[in-house]
């Protein structure tokens, strides 16, 4: 088994029962599971599984959790406390891609209140963080130019401060696929798939052989610029679709990207952080037929019937 996670999305009307899904994770040797909403049927299925769980409150609950400590207590007492004796909660992710956006300013207080609520039930060691997308950056090329957008700089200073105070990493969702598919004349497929054999980008003393590292280091540079050079990163999502946008999507490309990503994150940091191994979640467990558009519906390692889309695990 590998210390790697896979995101368990539920945007499908033909997905297997949660108990079967948990069994599939365990058979596949996947150690971490990311869940985007506190579904009681999934949490029940996770009892005794030994899987380390990353749980997100629904984004619509963020404002309440941020504004009212008793609402954070209620969320924890409803969704964590009843399961904590036999479900291993390792991460709570307050807001998935809500920075930038109208909910962004709730994130720092939501993290603080949730940490306090977890500590009150003896779970002070759970990592509490948020997950942000690439468009939180206004500049990312070259990586040393990485900078947060002006509209999120203040909230990111607050988020970074509260994460630094607990030693938690900032989660980032990183998708070289979208950069490549939207700009194939400038981005080579080898650079996107970790297959380049010579440096593609030279950024001062840093040499980049793959787009993933360049995207991650743009976040490191952005954190340096707001005064948090020591803040660690974790990968909240990364993946490659197997269909939906030929020729950029294919089973081969998806398999190569994900295989190379796993090998890379388990053994390497990035040029800016060479020794730093990042906790990583791959997206996603299943093809989800209620997501928007063919590409978004084809990120899965497995079909809803639990057959693999390609050999991987």
Automatic annotation (TrEMBL):
SUPFAM superfamilies: (Trans)glycosidases. It holds the Pfam family Glyco_hydro_17. One of its GO terms (molecular function) is glucan endo-1,3-beta-D-glucosidase activity. It comes from Populus deltoides. This is glucan endo-1,3-beta-D-glucosidase. Its EC number is 3.2.1.39. Keywords: Glycosidase, Hydrolase. Belongs to the glycosyl hydrolase 17 family. One of its GO terms (biological process) is carbohydrate metabolic process. Signal peptide: none annotated. It catalyses: Hydrolysis of (1->3)-beta-D-glucosidic linkages in (1->3)-beta-D-glucans. Coiled coil: none annotated. It is an enzyme of class 3 (hydrolase).
């Amino acid at each position: 088994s590998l210390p790697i996670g896979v995101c368990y999305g539920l945007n499908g009307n033909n997905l297997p029962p949660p108990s079967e899904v948990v069994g599939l994770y365990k058979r596949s040797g996947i150690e971490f599971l990311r869940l985007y909403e506190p579904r009681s049927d999934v949490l029940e299925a996770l009892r005794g599984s030994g899987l380390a769980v990353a749980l997100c409150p629904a984004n619509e609950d963020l404002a309440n959790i941020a504004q009212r400590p008793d609402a954070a207590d209620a969320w924890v007492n409803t969704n964590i406390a009843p399961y904590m004796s036999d479900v291993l909660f390792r991460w709570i992710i307050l807001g998935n891609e809500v920075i930038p956006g109208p909910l962004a300013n709730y994130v720092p207080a939501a993290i603080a209140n949730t940490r306090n609520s977890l500590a009150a039930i003896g779970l002070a060691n759970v990592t509490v963080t948020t997950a942000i997308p690439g468009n939180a950056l206004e500049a990312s090329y070259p990586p040393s130019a990485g900078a947060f957008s002006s509209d999120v700089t203040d909230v990111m200073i607050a988020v970074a401060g509260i994460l630094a105070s607990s030693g938690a990493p900032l989660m980032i969702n990183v998708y070289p696929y979208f950069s490549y598919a939207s700009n194939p004349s400038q981005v080579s497929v080898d650079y996107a798939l970790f297959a380049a054999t010579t440096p593609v980008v030279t950024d001062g003393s840093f040499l980049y052989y793959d787009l993933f590292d360049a995207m991650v280091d743009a976040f490191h540079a952005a954190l340096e610029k707001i005064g948090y050079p020591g803040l660690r990163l974790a990968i909240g999502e990364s993946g490659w679709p197997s269909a939906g946008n030929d020729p950029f999507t294919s089973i081969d490309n998806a398999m190569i990207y994900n295989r190379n990503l796993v090998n890379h994150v388990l053994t390497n940091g990035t040029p800016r952080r060479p020794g730093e191994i990042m906790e990583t979640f791959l997206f996603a467990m299943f093809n989800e037929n209620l997501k928007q558009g063919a590409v978004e519906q084809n990120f899965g390692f497995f079909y809803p019937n639990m057959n693999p889309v390609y050999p991987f695990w």
